[in-house]
Amino acid sequence: AQSVTQPDIHITVSEGASLELRCNYSYGATPYLFWYVQSPGQGLQLLLKYFSGDTLVQGIKGFEAEFKRSQSSFNLRKPSVHWSDAAEYFCAVGRRGSQGNLIFGKGTKLSVKP
Amino acid sequence: SQTIHQWPATLVQPVGSPLSLECTVEGTSNPNLYWYRQAAGRGLQLLFYSVGIGQISSEVPQNLSASRPQDRQFILSSKKLLLSDSGFYLCAWSVAGGTYEQYFGPGTRLTVT
Predict the structure, then answer these.
(1) Which one of A13, A59, B86, B98 has the lowest number of neighbouring Cβ atoms within 10 Å?
(2) Min CA distance, B78 vs chain A (Å)?
(3) How far apart are CA B48 and CA A4, in angstroms?
(4) What is the pLDDT of residues A46-101, one digit of tens each?
(5) Considering only alpha carbons, which residue of chain B is nearest residue A90?
């Protein structure tokens, strides 16, 4: 069965430091891959997506993610974190041929120290 | 551009009372529609999805039901709420036959007392 693992429940980084949030998935073929961000009490906002092609994808707010097939990973990165990046981040996987359903990881909460 | 609305934003209901949460999408036709529940520390749980009017698929047997009376309207209901129904409910849409990215509404915070 498909699954998505975000191994880090909570990460704290200093403002201006680099960030990497981990995501591993379990799926036999190349899935559709997504990262979402959620501020407290808000809905989820799509940061970026991977379908095919270039394995390094750029998203909004200065985020990028790299698809590594050999590691079944899709880690999210940002070179310099801003205080406004504090939020919860969700990785999601879509199985090609399904009816558009996504499997979400349990999320990583990011705190930013001044 | 497309917009998704949910209401109410917050709701406090006693155990045993009925529930109706509404979601509407503007600016697109024949979207796939989804209801999720989010409980603290447990990520997103897909409750229902719909690929067309009157077509509802349930992912988790529970106290809730969903309906899609119009193309861009999705309703989540319950006849009798349980304490365990408390949570943050999110509606989302995606393009039918597209590349699966889902776009989320602002959510409804439901507290069952």
Answers:
(1) B98
(2) 22
(3) 20
(4) 999 998 888 999 999 999 999 999 999 999 999 999 999 999 999 999 877 666 78
(5) B43
